[in-house]
Amino acid sequence: MEGATLEEPGDVDSPLKKPNNSAPPRKYADGGYGWVILASCFVITGLTASFVRSFGIFFLDVQNYFDTIAFKVSWISAITVAVFHFGSPLASAINFKLSLRVITIIGGIFSMLGLLLGSFALSLTWMYFTTGALVGLGNGFAWISSVNLVNQYFTDRRPLANALASSGDSIFVFILTPFYQWLIDIMSWQQAMMIISAISLNMCVCGALMRPYRSQKKSQNSAPLSAMHSRTGLCRKSLVQEKISAYLTLLKQPQFICLILFGFFSVMGLFIPVVYLIPHAQNIGVEDFKGALLMSYWSAADLIGRLGCGWLANLRLLKSIRLAIIMMVVFSILLLLIPLAKNYTSLIIFSCVCGFFLGTIMALVVTLITDVVGVERLSSALGLIMLFRGVGCLLGPPLAGLLVDWTGVYSTAFFLAGGGMLIATFFLILTDYFTTYGQNSDQSTGNEKGNSNSQARPQEEAGKGDLGSDTRGDPAVELLNAVPE
Q1: C-beta atoms surrounding 221 within 10 Å
Q2: How many CB atoms lie within 10 A of CB 350?
Q3: How far is CA 465 from CA 454, 468, 469, in A?
Q4: Residues 419-435, buried b or exposed e (16+ Cβ, 10 A)?
């Protein structure tokens, strides 16, 4: 299979290969087939997000069907999002055996089966395992693979590419949320889920288009094919060891620990509102279809925020992480104020404004992670962050459900969402501090070592070249020493 070859998409040289001093140009960098990859990621992002963000439409129907409390129903979406995050590092791990294309197709099949089996609604526990775990695992497999390929095909336009890919979330939710409500109105919610399961199979089509990234690299001294295959087992073992080493290296960095905590607390603000906005509207007397339109308004503003912020971030006028901090502070305050909305007009206003700022944040997340850890370790970093975010997903919606059961109103869930986002903002500020401080320290250390070496070196040896100099700050050397992703 493709994943068993020595040259994985976007990988740097294997430890068994001799490094090439000249970095070859990338064939598809910032264009070419990269636009097909971007379009596929756009569709996959939309399909994986549409059901999760529209689950509020099904919330009251499922609650009435099983005649249970909100706390128990909220576990369905909590498990879906949590397993989505847990499945991402698993997808990164099995990339040693399978290609990103195959992983994406498997994810589409899992998602379809989870929705189809969940539509039988045998029990809440049954829905936890199908609509929750199986759908979440499939979505995680498909999403992480497509995002990895987009960041391999795009470099200079990476912020804009990530914004365009993530905009599939907004556009699909904008279109499909009213469509899902229409399905529920003309048939049962279970039959609607069967149709949604068929729609999710389009992820397999997008996965088939996921051509593995290949750098334009032709070595005249390359080993024969038989010799290359004989080394495959040894190379794979080395890659696994270096992958583990990459995880341990990341966990030793304070800025990455802060990124993990940022991801843990931010899921409360990112997923609680989309689950409880529609039930909150229905609880204060808004019609079902009008309540579903709130998510369309939210998604339309979300799209504007993603594209606008992606364009702004691409100008590099401000660091992506600092731009995200500003947007998160405003979004946190807005979430805390949503319970003040007591009529449909005010709900529309809050939906549009909150959706806009959520879109700006989502457009920046992958880019700021890449800026902190580097593209070479993006796969490892995303896997670990998604793992810890999954824990937050298991806690956020159920805690919000407890607040709803205790108070009897859905608006209280937004207090938990806003508080979680404020805490996440604090850790993002710490991430920026440690990243900036670490870079300044490295530069100061490099300057001091450079000055001492120049003083100690005899004048007659000054023209010998760079072979004896400190190469730890050289980007080319760092790339050769980087862990393959």
Answers
A1: 6
A2: 23
A3: 13, 8, 8
A4: bbbbbbbebbbbbbebb
Query: How much is the pTM?
Result: 0.68
Q: What is the pLDDT of residues 208-250, one digit of tens each?
A: 998 887 654 443 444 444 444 445 555 556 666 776 787 788 8
% of the chain exceeding 70 in pLDDT: 78
Identity of the residue numbered 188: S
Q: Give me the residue label for tokens 């976007």.
A: 10
d(CA 56, CA 73): 11
Residue 296 to residue 346: CA distance in whole angstroms: 15
Q: What angle do helix axes 254-283 and 55-66 make, rounded to 10 degrees?
A: 60
| CA dist list (Å): 204 to 106, 132, 143, 356 | 7, 20, 12, 30
Q: Are 95 and 3 in contact (CB under 8 A)?
A: yes
List, in sequence order, the alpha helices (H) in 187-216. 189-200, 202-208
* Cβ neighbours of 437 (radius 10 Å): 12
Compute CA distances 50 → 170, 183, 207, 296, 453, whole Å. Answer: 8, 14, 18, 11, 58
**Counting every residue, how long is the chain?**
485
In angstroms, the CA 162 to CA 184 distance is 33
Cα angle: 379, vertex 129, 48; to 5 degrees = 45
* Confidence at 451, pLDDT banded by 50, 70, 90: low
**116 contact partners, CB below 8 Å, separation of at least 6:** 193, 194, 197
- 279 and 410 in contact (C-beta within 8 Å)? yes
At residue 295, does pLDDT exceed 70?
A: yes
